[in-house]
Amino acid sequence: MARPPALFLVPVFLYHFWRAKRWRSAVLLVVVLLAIFIPWTWRNWQVYGEPMPFGAAGNFNFWIGNYHGGNGEQSPTEEHIQFAAKYGVREINSESLRQFKIFLRDYPAEFLKLTLLRVNKYFSIFRPMGFWFYLRGPGQFLFILSSAVTSVLVFILALAGILKIVATRDKRLYYLLALTVMTPLIVFITVVETRYRFPIYPLLAIFAAYFIVSLGSRFKWRSEKLLWLAVALIFLNGAVDLFLNIGLIKERLNGFF
Question: Which pick of 65, 75, 169, 208 has the fewest CB atoms within 10 Å?
Fold first, then answer.
C-alpha cells in the first residue's frame, strides 16, 4: 500500500480476465483491492486530513527525481530538504506535484533525458546491490561483487530469453512479458535506486530459466546468436552508465579500501 508500483500490474490481469471472459475473477480482484485500500485510505484521511490511497510522501519522488539539473536519482537538494522539514505531508504532496508539472512544462526535453538515464541506471550492471550500513571495506566490496555477478547473469540470460520469446513468437509468455514491462514504469518517471529492482528480479529469473531450458540438453552457448546479442546490449548499457558516472563509481570504490 505504501509502495503502489504493484498496481501497474492490475491492468494486465484485468485484460487477461477480459480476454478469457473470467468476469468473476475480475470482480474478485477489484473487490480485494478495494478491501485493502479503503481502510488504508481512510486511515490516512484521519491522520493527514485528506484521502491518500498510497504512501504519505509518495508524490515527493516526482519532485526530487525531476528538477532542472538533476540526475534522476533519489538525491534531494537543499530546497527539497528544507521544504520537507518545514511543511507537513499535505503540503509536500501538493507542492511536489506542482513542481513536477512545472518541470514538465518548462523542461520537457530534460524530463525525457532523465527518464532515459533512469532506464539506463535501472538496468546497469555497474549498479549492484550491497551498500548496506552494517558492512564496511573489503567485506562490503565482496558482497557487492557477488551481487554484480548475479546481476550480470540474470540480466543477460533474461534478455536472451525475452529476445527468444519475441523471435519465436511464443505467446505463452506474453502476459509475463507485459508484467515485466509494467513493473518498473513508475521508477522510470520518478527516481531510480538499485533496490527498486527487487520486484523485477523474480520475473527476470523466469525468462533466464526459459532461455536455459530452450537450449535443450546440449548447451551450444557459442552458437547462440541471441545470447551474444543480449551480452552486447547489457554491456553497452553498462558502459554508457560507466562513462556518464565514472566519478561517482570511483568515489564508491575508494571507500572500500
Answer: 169
Determine contact, residues 190/3, Cβ cutoff 8 Å. Answer: no
3-state secondary structure of 10: helix
Cα dist from 177 to 109, 159, 185, whole Å: 29, 11, 13
Q: Are 73 and 22 in contact (CB under 8 A)?
A: no
Beta strands in the chain (DSSP E): none
Cα angle 253-254-257, degrees, rounded to a multiple of 5: 100
CB atoms within 10 A of CB 226: 18
Higher per-residue confidence, 196 vs 50: 196
pTM for the model stands at: 0.83
Q: How far is CA 184 from CA 157, 169, 180, 239, in A?
A: 19, 23, 8, 21
